[in-house]
Amino acid sequence: MNQLRVIILSCLVSFLLIPFTVTVAENTPNNSMLLSETEINQKIETLPEWTTDGKVISRTFEFKDFVTAIDFVNQLVAPAESAGHHPDLAISYNKVTVSLTTHDAGGLTALDFSLAEKISQLAN
């Protein structure tokens, strides 16, 4: 019965020529491999104002007021969803601290640095 439903659905989609988009997240096996200490140190150098403890990278962004800080947080949704990778956020009035780590990998991966770069661009 399930195969019949799939066939009927496939025929309907083909017949109606319904356009659709498939988004592939950036979260691929190569991006989710743990980085070495050397790689982390090299990558953190390319991200001004970001710091690391070797397991997490973070940066605090300061804005003129609470509303602007929340606007910034809202801008983080699209790139985080697109990457399939979500930052930890702490909001304190006009300050937003963004922390990134790849929990599944147990530390820092290329995903963290890629998203950090996108987040930095949004703040500028």
Features:
single chain, 124 residues, alpha+beta, globular, disordered N terminus, EC 4.2.1.96, Pterin_deHydtase, PCD_sf
Q: Could you explain how this protein is built, in words?
A:
With 124 residues, this protein is an alpha+beta fold. The protein has one domain: 2-Layer Sandwich (Gyrase A, domain 2), CATH 3.30.1360.20. The chain is 44% helix and 15% strand. A four-stranded antiparallel β-sheet has the order 1-2-4-3, covered by helices on one side. The radius of gyration is 19 Å and the shape is globular. The N terminus is likely disordered.
Short précis:
The protein has helices at 2-16, 37-44, 66-75, 77-83, 110-123, and strands spanning 51-52, 57-62, 88-92, 95-100.
Question: What count of helical segments does DSSP give?
Answer: 5
Mean pLDDT: 82
Structural class: alpha+beta
Give the strand order of the largest sheet, numbering strands 1, 2, ... along the chain: 1-2-4-3
The first-level CATH class name: Alpha Beta
Order of H and E elements: HHEEHHEEH
Rounded radius of gyration (Å): 19 Å
Q: What is the CATH topology? A: Gyrase A, domain 2
Family: Belongs to the pterin-4-alpha-carbinolamine dehydratase family.
InterPro entries: PCD_sf, Pterin_deHydtase
GO biological process, one term: tetrahydrobiopterin biosynthetic process
EC number: 4.2.1.96
